[in-house]
Amino acid sequence: MRVSDFHYELPERLIAAEPPARRTDSRLLVLDGETGAVADRRFTDLRELLCPGDLLVLNDTRVLPARLLGHKDSGGAVEVLLERLLGGSEALAQLRVSKKPRAGSELVLEGGLAVTVVAREGDFFRLRFPDDAPLPVLLERHGHMPLPPYIRRPDTETDRERYQTVYARTPGAVAAPTAGLHFDRPLLEALRADGVRTESLTLHVGAGTFQPVRSETVEGHHMHAEWLSVPAAVCEAAADTRARGGRVIAVGTTVVRALETAARGGELAPFEGETDIFLYPGHRFRAIDGLITNFHLPESTLLMLVSAFGGRENVLAAYRHAVAAKYRFFSYGDAMFLCPPAPEARP
Predict the structure, then answer these.
(1) Do 299 and 275 share a structural domain?
(2) What span, in angstroms and rounded, lies between the C-alpha atoms of 11 and 211?
(3) Are residues 93 and 205 in the same domain?
């Protein structure tokens, strides 16, 4: 399977650089995976599309202000984008710099924050921060929100709130689980009042989520690893939901990757650790019955995951409809709701 099989044309004007005025102002493209039919709705129409007894699974990761600016001790400018916290005062990071720093050298970041380069690890650098405060606290003081590279503007104070779900509570991500950005507290409360259950897991989204696929074939790509935790409460709620005839709906591709990792043994079970699971057409989904997601970049692993669930031809046709209908794309853009095709129709 070729990466180019997941290409589509997107005018740059449809890339959302700002969030909507209100979280729930987004549009919602509904794709019936069995028939390929699409419908143009509003995000608040989820109250009509979800049923009492359905389960929404949310990712409660919290985005860190993980982008830091400064210079090397030799004077060259440097941009630091954290990939993950390693415990204590150390973190793994990407560095944007003209000449890669040596182990033992120092980076001087905004606010006088002095950071030591410990070692290079593949495409990343292990950095040591001062230990006078917890690392998340230092990031809140000195960091910027790590907006995706296709949003070509500086971050603002507004992004501190809007590039974060209203249910974020576990710090560790360097990119938002963007499908959840459309929910506000009144909508969640209304859905619960309608009989829709919610449960949360954690997957800390890494900066690698924006890395392009460099191989020509899908099978030649290897995913970056991300840390996740699927608690027993999620597994029990999913089993109970299906036993009662309800649907397990993943809010975002990160939730799909977490649940499918936890179901690798055949049944959904509690899991904590790293995953590099890569979901593309041909995968048999074990843990979900529906998916709420944003629109994703052409030829990206996220588009491949959505295509695996909804059918490649169906999904690409839906994307062409979304372009023609001027939906807003990517992190601050509009959303899709997908139900899978019948098993025999899947690629």
Answers:
(1) yes
(2) 20
(3) no
Q: What is the pLDDT of residues 196-252, one digit of tens each?
A: 999 999 999 987 777 788 899 999 999 988 999 999 999 999 999 999 999 999 999
| Virtual torsion, Cα 21, 23, 26, 30, nearest 10 deg | 180
What is d(CA 248, CA 232) in angstroms, rounded to the nearest whole number? 15
Write down the pTM of the prediction: 0.93
Q: Domain with 129 in it: what CATH number?
A: 2.40.10.240
Dihedral in degrees, nearest 10, Cα atoms 279, 286, 310, 249 = -110
Would you state the pLDDT for residue 75?
86
| C-alpha pair distances (Å), 195 with each of 56, 198, 231, 246 | 11, 10, 22, 11
Distances (CA, A) of 201 to 64, 166, 271: 17, 15, 10
325 within a domain of the structure (yes/no): yes
Measured in Å, how far apart are the chain's first and last C-alpha atoms?
A: 11
Instruction: Identify which of 338, 322, 321 has the alpha carbon closest to the alpha carbon of residue 330.
Output: 322
Contact indicator for 270, 241 with CB cutoff of 8 Å: no
What gap in Å lies between CA 105 and CA 134, rounded to an integer? 22
Element (H, E) at 289: none
Helix (H) or strand (E) holding 60: none
Closest CA to 115 of 68, 159, 151, 83: 68
**Size (the chain), residues:** 347
Among candidate residues 91, 51, 97, 96, the one with its CA nearest the CA of residue 241: 51
Closest of 200, 193, 137 to residue 166, by C-alpha: 200
Same domain, 308 and 174: yes
